[in-house]
Amino acid sequence: MLTEDKSKPSNVRTGFACYTFEPKSNIPIKVIVLDDTQRDDDLNNPDSLGYGHASLDNERYDWLVKELDKGQAEGKLMIIAAHIPISVEQADSMMGWNPAAPISEAQLISKLHEYPNLILWIAGHRHLNIVTALKSPDAARPELGFWEVETASLRDFPQQLRTFEIVRNSDNTVSIFATDVDPAVKDGSLAAISRSYAAATRQIFNMTPDPMPTGSYNAELVKQLTPEMQEKLSVVGGGV
Stretch 167-182: mean pLDDT, rounded? Predict the structure, then answer.
């Protein structure tokens, strides 16, 4: 029987929904799941700005920095998984960063560029399939850049999901293969009903399939490795 330890506040009670995990213990990859959604008590004007922005308070930002520092020190490639993307919306956008957030978007991005082992930020929120390069601010250190991959919702036709495969290359880089996948749907199933709703939405609102760069597409994204990671991954093999 499972019981809750009442002496430790749960994420539900505290509203802190951030955590990390490592997909495989023998492969140096760390996934940082970051809650970058706006809190109900954020300082802003909800009548004009709403609550659909990205936002980080000091607690979540400090936790993120701590996890990035730890991952970098331990020699692990790092992926941030968040709901809302960064660096893709104007400052006054309803879908962008909360201008009243304790941590600014520029401050966050500047900090992220300090971690050469950060390879990927994955997000949703805007219901688009887009790949964005957040290039290194130092041309002499390309390893400080990272990729951002946004994926549309499963409620959106054609209801595709996204897979990621990370492979080490012979030129001291890693390739991130971001692939859109069409799930198999059995006739008469709940999934089939859901797909009919997604198709009907496009018909009702006279929506056409999105072309690139917001439509469905696959991509190979290349990331430069530091000498330290080159040495560490040499014992892992081709597939990371």
Answer: 95
